[in-house]
Amino acid sequence: MLTGVCHCGAVHVTIPRKPRSVTDCNCSICRRYGVLWAYYKASTVRVEAKAGATESYAWGRKALRFVRCTTCGCVVCWQRVRPDPERKMGVNIRNFPLDVLNSVRIRSLDGATWDGRTH
Fold it and tell me: pTM to 2 decimals?
């Protein structure tokens, strides 16, 4: 188990293992957030924060919501608007210690020209 934390420490995200690869997406929102996504089955990720410490943003088809800390603004993950513990979610691996990215393959996703399906 690995735990990442937003900049101010208010939101913790625990994942089951180091990612094998991460995704650098250039879609309109990911490139602005500057995130690197690691994907896990939603049932294996734990997001911990006090009530009111997170807020979310959904756009377009509103299939995904991007969760961020209300204090420091760090994006911690994306989740499905309709929760499904068996489907994947994205975790912003940039909130984890730098050594988590050592030897992890970074793959590029051209989300800017993609057809709009979720990551």
Answer: 0.90
